[in-house]
Amino acid sequence: MSPRMRPTITPRRRAPSALLAVAGLVLAVAPDAAFAQPAAYPSKPIRIVVPFPPGGGVDFVARTVAQRLGESMKQQVLVENRSGAGGRIGAETVARSAPDGYTLLIASPAEVVVLPALGQKLSYDPRRELQPITLAGEAPLVIAVHPSVTAKSIPELIALARAQPGKIGFGTPGAGSTMQFAGAMLEILGKVDLTHIPYKGAAPALSDALGGQVPVLIVGIPPVVQHAKAGKLRVLAVTGERRSGALPEVPAVAELPGFAGYRFTNWMGVFAPAKTPAPIVERLNQEIVRIVREPVTRDALAAQGVDAAGLSVIEFEAFLDSETRRYATIARERMIVAEE
Predict the structure, then answer these.
(1) Could you say which of 140, 201, 252, 295 has the lowest number of CB atoms within 10 Å?
(2) Please, what are the domains in the chain?
(3) What CA–CA distance (Å, rounded) separates 68 from 139?
């Protein structure tokens, strides 16, 4: 047959039903292909709210974590200080934020555990409106005395208090503080009566302790270390489960006979608004746990008297339950009330 005479072959058209079947097969294999993919998390800067002024332990941990988290997630992580009302303003800010993983909270025991245990009315419910992510770190406290106090150990302080019921005072940064609870537990386990002297912050309490106006002081480690080395204060014990790297020669209260299980720390927990999607919560948990366990981060925290932690979400929730029960029990026994 001549090329000119070769018949033209026209492609066969698919029946409409066949096209629909193919389209259905494509959607069945890749149902999201026909829709716009959601933006990967994080697609914009993350904000970490610190409910206290700059310069404190919680702020330091937040900034340390923020820097490493930003590098890890390749997104800017900003720290915002929203202080006031003993941490409640910052906590409420996060509780009221969109549950999208872009607003986080680094909290202390006060605004999440202590105030609820004291029956304090809050504008937010920390256990219902905040999603636990992880425990970033814990900072033990110190129990220190003025050099004029004859006690050189916790047992000697207990003996001194028994000889003078109610006459030995201990200063703390405030009523309802973790430090007051540390002193209250010392009373319970030591079977003694001390007098709590609350101050408006750690600085004035430290000042009076240095001046001898208050014989016993319970505060965080950092402001005490230099004065202890200069002989202006005598540190009797730390309140963590074990000795602190900042004061390795000082025993933990829990080491002493009759004080097993004694533990009071200023811990730093990370939270998101409730109803934050589980994949985002898990991603944040994995990233932050890895960061705080890295040697460089662990060393930076230790230099400030903070022990790196890092718990799973489930472990952190159990930790919060335990802390709430413990503080509530002590508050009832020693009749501790929150400072309005």
Answers:
(1) 295
(2) 46-139+265-334 (3.40.190.150), 140-255 (3.40.190.10)
(3) 20
